[in-house]
From TrEMBL:
This is Uncharacterized protein. It comes from the Eukaryota. InterPro entries: LRR_dom_sf.
Length: 134
């Protein structure tokens, strides 16, 4: 794999949580990976740690409908240098996680499926050109 890998898109559907995917730590070996969808009901912190190694990532979808996220996920993911589009299928996110979304360096599109307080929505719109709250 490594530099020889040409895989650019990956969709992972697991029934329960990301810890049940034993090969998840191998994702950073796919150096050309630009789009990832991970759609479990619960997303562990380790998932974000693994994804931080995917530096070419431009589009990321996390969580199926009403998914639950481990604490501090957004701060961990904010180091992705090329991430342009983020879709979060969270049932809810703490205000601190929502505010952390303003620190993503290249984010151009954000899709949220949770309630967002008005003051945080305004903050997001100041930092991200396209914010859709579904």
């Amino acid at each position: 794999m490594g530099n020889q890998s040409t895989l650019e898109e990956l969709i992972i559907r697991v029934d329960i949580n990301t810890n049940s995917v034993s090969w998840m730590p191998l994702l950073p070996l796919f150096k050309c990976l630009k789009s990832v969808e991970i759609l479990p009901d619960f997303i562990h912190r380790e998932c974000a740690i693994v994804l931080t190694g995917c530096s070419a990532l431009e589009k990321l979808t996390l969580g199926g409908m009403r998914a639950t996220f481990a604490d501090d996920m957004m701060r961990l993911l904010s180091v992705l240098p090329n991430l342009k589009c983020l879709r979060l299928g969270a049932g809810s996110l703490p205000d601190s996680e929502l505010v952390a979304l303003t620190t993503f360096p290249s984010l151009e599109q954000l899709y949220l499926e949770c309630d967002v307080p008005n003051y945080i929505e305004k903050m997001l719109l100041r930092h991200i050109p396209k914010v859709i709250i579904e």
